[in-house]
UniProtKB/TrEMBL annotation:
<keyword id="KW-0406">Ion transport</keyword>
<dbReference type="GO" id="GO:0005886">
    <property type="term" value="C:plasma membrane"/>
</dbReference>
<protein>
    <submittedName>
        <fullName>Neur_chan_LBD domain-containing protein</fullName>
    </submittedName>
</protein>
<dbReference type="InterPro" id="IPR006028">
    <property type="entry name" value="GABAA/Glycine_rcpt"/>
</dbReference>
<dbReference type="InterPro" id="IPR036734">
    <property type="entry name" value="Neur_chan_lig-bd_sf"/>
</dbReference>
<keyword id="KW-1003">Cell membrane</keyword>
<dbReference type="Pfam" id="PF02932">
    <property type="entry name" value="Neur_chan_memb"/>
</dbReference>
<keyword id="KW-0813">Transport</keyword>
<dbReference type="Pfam" id="PF02931">
    <property type="entry name" value="Neur_chan_LBD"/>
</dbReference>
<dbReference type="GO" id="GO:0005230">
    <property type="term" value="F:extracellular ligand-gated monoatomic ion channel activity"/>
</dbReference>
<keyword id="KW-0812">Transmembrane</keyword>
<dbReference type="InterPro" id="IPR036719">
    <property type="entry name" value="Neuro-gated_channel_TM_sf"/>
</dbReference>
<keyword id="KW-0732">Signal</keyword>
<dbReference type="InterPro" id="IPR018000">
    <property type="entry name" value="Neurotransmitter_ion_chnl_CS"/>
</dbReference>
<keyword id="KW-0407">Ion channel</keyword>
<feature type="transmembrane region" description="Helical">
    <location>
        <begin position="269"/>
        <end position="288"/>
    </location>
</feature>
<dbReference type="GO" id="GO:0004888">
    <property type="term" value="F:transmembrane signaling receptor activity"/>
</dbReference>
Length: 301
């Protein structure tokens, strides 16, 4: 389209634009796309004297992005936008990136994901009969985990720690020792499943965290059951002491009662000391190996 004009020719009429040949790019991984036409078709074409044609058009597209949530909510995702020719082979239409192809009018703000890096590349389109030119725009995204710390991690940790109250409860409050861990366990189940946004068929980092919190709670419940069984056995020994006919039998029952009392006191003391240490060790392991593990580890064969 070489011409003798000294300034670029501006094409503003849709009828003239339809008469000019244009390449046929399309978004390969698009689910839904449309051109903007309010209040006038949003396009701009300029034809320069040397024949160079610049064509700009506003398009909105919703594209597919394959994501893995093994490290959710500490995951990092890579999404791309693929542009190719639908009818022409690369010998007829060849797409290349401009020197500076990406520009943003303002900073991109997403609800949870932050754009860490954007870069361009070439690609291959699978499933086509012809080999056409293809361009790829890649977005590297990282999830912001601050909301999950406030809504998931801190409440679940506090709920689990509430189950640690059982070893401090006086021994005559037997119902409290059982009801407290059960209530915490039901709370954790509801907290995990109540507003779950990501549902997968594999285990995510968040699933590992809640499984550990429920595991600590179940251990506290089992410890309470063992202590209550020992207390019941100790009380039975005390009744046997009162019904003993000889001094020897009374001393044997007294010795057995003393052993049982010392055993459940020691068991409570161990739980008070070991539970926080085990939780701290799990927290370090979770942050170093689970939350920062392999992106595809949960689906790898």
């Amino acid at each position: 389209l070489v011409n003798n004009y000294t300034k670029p020719i501006r094409i503003r009429e849709k009828q003239i634009l339809d008469l000019i040949w244009k390449p046929d790019p399309y978004f390969v991984n698009s689910k839904y796309s449309y051109f903007h036409a309010v209040s006038f078709p949003n396009f701009r074409m300029r034809i320069y004297p040397d024949g160079l044609v610049k064509y700009t058009v506003r398009v909105t597209s919703v594209c597919n992005c394959f994501m893995l949530f093994c490290l959710y909510p500490h995951d990092r995702q890579t999404c791309d936008l693929r542009i190719s020719s639908i009818a022409y082979p690369s010998a007829f239409v060849h797409f290349v990136w401009h020197t500076d192809p990406i520009s943003f009018q303002s900073d991109i703000a997403l609800p949870e994901l932050h754009v860490q890096h954007v870069w361009t590349d070439k690609c291959n389109v699978e499933g086509k009969l012809i080999r056409s030119s293809c361009l790829r725009l890649v977005f590297e995204l990282e999830r912001d985990g601050a909301r999950f710390v406030v809504e998931k991690y801190i409440p679940s940790t506090l709920a689990m720690m509430f189950a640690w109250v059982a070893p401090y409860v006086p021994y005559n409050y037997e119902d409290v020792r059982i009801i407290t861990p059960i209530t915490v366990l039901l709370t954790l189940v509801q907290m995990e499943k109540g507003d779950k946004e990501i549902r997968t068929s594999y285990i995510t980092s968040m699933d590992v965290w809640f499984a550990a919190m429920k595991g600590f709670t179940v251990i506290s419940l089992l410890e309470s059951l063992v202590v209550l069984a020992l207390i019941k056995r100790s009380r039975a020994m005390e009744k046997n002491m009162q019904r003993a006919k000889t001094e020897l039998e009374r001393e044997n029952f007294k010795l057995e009662k003393h052993k049982l009392t010392r055993l459940y006191h020691r068991l409570d003391s161990m739980c008070r000391f070991i539970s926080p240490i085990v939780f701290v060790l799990f927290f370090v392991y979770y942050m170093l190996f689970v939350a920062q593990g392999n992106e595809r580890g949960c689906v790898a064969k």
